[in-house]
Amino acid sequence: MALVHNFFYIYQGFTYKMDESRDVIEKLVQITKIGALGDGEKVRIQALRLVRALRQTSNPLADHIQNEVFSQSFNQSTSSAIRRVKDSGLNSPVPADNETNSELLSVEDPIYLPNGFISSEEIRGPLNLIISERKSTKRLLDAGIIPTSKILFTGPPGVGKTVCAKYLAQKLKVPLLTLDLATIVSSYLGRTGNNVKKALDYAKSRPCVLLLDELDAIAKKRDDSSDVGETKRLVTVMLQELDQWQGDNLLIAATNHYHLLDAAVQRRFDQIVEFKRPKLEELMQVGTALVSGDGLPKAWIYFVASLMEETSYSDFQREINNLRKVLFLEGEAGALEHLKFLMERQCPVDDRQQRKNLALLLVTKGKSSQRTASKITGVSRDTLRSALAAGAQ
Fold first, then answer.
1. Are residues 131 and 81 in the same domain?
2. 206 domain-assigned
């Protein structure tokens, strides 16, 4: 916050016409907002932008801010954050929208995967090949083979597209830059295209993995009858940028709606990785990693995974974490009630066969007691014993 106070002290020490200071005031507001969140690194980045804007009009504030802000010492945590960005090659501010002054790219460095990386073999195979390619780029080029530089991740929400982008950046030991294309679409003609160009030019100039999220927001089919022309122009911009993306960095685009993408955009990618909804075994891996050491019975994880097969990793993680909280706060009785609530929501009351199947899975696969399986599913223990006996014959 000391940085913010310095800015207002500097601002009060100079006077200039309001019509000439609008841009400066907007930047000061942005600095104040970021400073209130305690992000010293971003305050310094915004300060650089402010200094540049002031120098364009020969305003004496530029030198004053330069001396006041960039000559002072910072505490250890702030200095560490600044060194971290510098060491990763991000030693200049990320580009910003000219009108709103909001940053176009979010930066994640170092990469943090709180639950590790878990994915199906169908996904892990292509990802490991990409990592191998990036580590052997020179050998491939010497052999006349162009390594993968543009990948398209496609699949429904919550199935791991963003996590996989983080994983690749982590394995390649570079920052992850994310451009959320849905948030930069503007009603002003040409502004969206300019923002895309600025973001990609920045990403080309330093080691990184670039994630273009929500690609369908600006790369839809050009045969849409409701289009007024801007979509066609944006697709053209995206095609040009994809054609120019070559070299050391990896570009990943993600979409939930592959069928909406323009065919020419689809063809620009070296590899397309399709993400599918998770199977029970994959959810069990995620659940086991989530609850490591906190006492949640494996049978309960299996039950939730059985209910939520073919949904999404994110929905499953949410429910497992909710169950952990209930167990911690209300004990086993509360947790069993929560499991019954989940079943009521996912499985119709009158679907007795599905409930019996779930009870059998709990006992045979989840290694649950018949008593617990009966409590959760509502299937009587007599019915359950009969079904188990029939299955054993």
1. no
2. yes
Give CA–CA dist 378/340, Å, rounded: 8
Place of tokens 């009969």: 386
Same-domain check for residues 244 and 150: yes
- Amino acid 44: pLDDT: 64
Number of Cβ atoms within 10 Å of the Cβ of 182: 11
Token pair 């801010």 is found at: 65
Q: Which of 211, 240, 274 is the last residue of a domain?
A: 274
What is the predicted pLDDT for the residue at 282? 87
Closest by CA position to 385, among listed 373, 340, 347: 373
pTM for this prediction: 0.69
Count of the separate structural domains present in the chain: 3
- pLDDT beneath 50: ranges in the chain: 1-2, 4, 7-20, 72-88
pLDDT at 87: 41
In a domain, residue 348? The reply is yes
pLDDT for residue 254:
95
∠ CA 114-116-117, nearest 5°, is: 130
Distance CA 218, CA 185 (A): 8
Based on the domain organization, do 317 and 204 belong to the same domain?
no
Same domain? For 219 and 252 the reply is yes
Q: How far is CA 364 from CA 105, 377, 387, 391, in A?
A: 49, 14, 11, 10
Give the range of the structural domain holding residue 300, as residue numbers without chain letter.
280-392
- What separation, in Å, do the N-terminal and C-terminal C-alpha atoms of the chain show? 73
DSSP letter at 291 equals T
User: Is 94 contained in some domain?
Assistant: no
3-state secondary structure of 381: helix
